[in-house]
Amino acid sequence: MTTPSPQEPAGFWETTGAAKTFTHPLDPALLAEFVPRTARVLDYGCGYGRLTAELAGLGYGAVCGIDPSAALIARGRREHPGLELLHRPGLPLPFADASFDAALLFAVLTCVPEDAGQRAITGELGRLVRPGGVLYLSDVPLQADAHNQDRYGRFAERYGTYGVFATDEGGVFRHHPPERLRELLRSAGFSVVRERRGTVGTLDGRTAERLQIMARREPAGRPDGAARASG
């Protein structure tokens, strides 16, 4: 996924980043538990439409993918002709409130280093997902291995946030305390209802722990519920 920020050169996602193979897999069983195939689904930060295409292949007939990178959307239209893939470089998105039954946010926040950008995205999805609908998030928590611990420490002073780091190719990424991800969802009006952890490949060919969160959009003014973790 690819939302430019003051700390992350937008050019990375229009050049080197646009050629990457994205790696966070969808869990079809988890998705089907919460999202019927009749749902209208927004795949925000869809990149080149990898998961948008998978959703269509699973029988979800009303799926829209959106990404801020023109290069990634152009790639997606070449690789997946016929999908609804839209280039939208900024927010808000051109949809009415509560336009979607569900939204995907896969490896998006890791590509948005700054707090304001993350809150803008989750807040916009809180606007677009109808009450009772769900947000399916997959992202990267802080890692415990020596490689990541070293670069968190080396880049903390430069970026002012522990967990933000730069790569040799010019990308800037962020790994999060899990509570940071939960708090972003709560602030946007979602209640966490399921969590799962697992291991995924990374853009640089390594592996990392990932955290999946299924969160339900609460009615306006209703307190968020307690998280129930599993897996």
From TrEMBL:
Pfam families: Methyltransf_11. SUPFAM superfamilies: S-adenosyl-L-methionine-dependent methyltransferases (SSF53335). It comes from Streptomyces albospinus. Coiled coil: none annotated. Residues 42-137 form the Methyltransferase type domain. This is Methyltransferase type 11 domain-containing protein. Keywords: Methyltransferase, S-adenosyl-L-methionine, Transferase. The lineage of its organism: Bacteria, Bacillati, Actinomycetota, Actinomycetes, Kitasatosporales.
